[in-house]
Amino acid sequence: MLEQRTSPNQKSCASTSMTKGRDELTFGDIGRISEVKANPFAHRIFELFSEDGSGNLSFDKFLNMMDAFSDDTPSEVKLVWAFAMWDFDGDGIIGSGDIKHGVDLMTHSGPLVQPSIHMLQRVPSNAGLDAEELDLIVKHVFQEVDPDCEGLSYFDFRRILTRMPDFLHNFHISI
């Protein structure tokens, strides 16, 4: 096994080249990787794993993120992170606003103005869905998964995703 040796005060070459001498990784450092770049939730994932919601990751937080998206991660851990990813407002319930925001990200209805912990400001774009189409999709999604329109708790979300066998296979990042 090849081992990289550095003194306690010296950063490894890989770490230094990626962070350009900083103590944390930014989305810009990793966002150029095709699998990350293609993920509509990439900014959201970085926000969730960062200490302060900024999206900047210490090396330990980066390893935590990669571990959560590893093929070997237990399904329960993946479900917890998937729920957090969809709970944009952080209230412990996935409501219609959260679903709308997720669908908006997936359909590229507008570029991000400024990534933030809630990522709610967007610039209108002709590339995605218009507001009426987006509302119609959210309505149909909620009719399917939450007919009472009370929002999805973690346990409701878990019950739904366990019926989707491809979810666990697709919930990964490999770089």
UniProtKB/TrEMBL annotation:
SMART domains registered for this protein in UniProt: EFh (SM00054)
InterPro entries linked: CIBP (IPR051433), EF-hand-dom_pair (IPR011992), EF_Hand_1_Ca_BS (IPR018247), EF_hand_dom (IPR002048)
Ranges of residues in domain EF-hand: 37-72, 74-109
Species name: Ceratopteris richardii
The protein's name in its UniProt record: EF-hand domain-containing protein
PROSITE patterns on file: EF_HAND_1 (PS00018), EF_HAND_2 (PS50222)
UniProt cross-references to Gene3D superfamilies, sorted A to Z: EF-hand
PANTHER family, alphabetized: CALCIUM AND INTEGRIN BINDING FAMILY MEMBER 1, CALCIUM AND INTEGRIN BINDING FAMILY MEMBER 2
Keywords from the UniProt entry: Calcium, Magnesium, Metal-binding, Repeat
SUPFAM superfamilies: EF-hand
Gene Ontology terms for molecular function: calcium ion binding
